[in-house]
């Protein structure tokens, strides 16, 4: 691969990172709000539907018909997942969580 081709995939990589950040940020928010809600099924159901639709549309828009673009977007999405896992270990517990002693 040439450097021009790699630079052409950079927007797909960054787009995948943004999609992953939105997806896992939305999941984090859903868990925090949904567990404290009187209707958690509504939070989890709608959030899952919206986050999935957003990611699928984003991948389709980013990659188009190019498998390399899809792969770059998927790599960015996966990087966001790893980052979310690292950051979630450092976040304070949500309000309804029992503290371990």
UniProtKB/TrEMBL annotation:
The keyword Transit peptide does not apply. InterPro entries: AtpR-like. Keywords: Membrane, Transmembrane, Transmembrane helix. The chain crosses the membrane at residues 6-29, 41-63, 69-87. The keyword Membrane applies. It holds the Pfam family AtpR. This is ATP synthase subunit I.
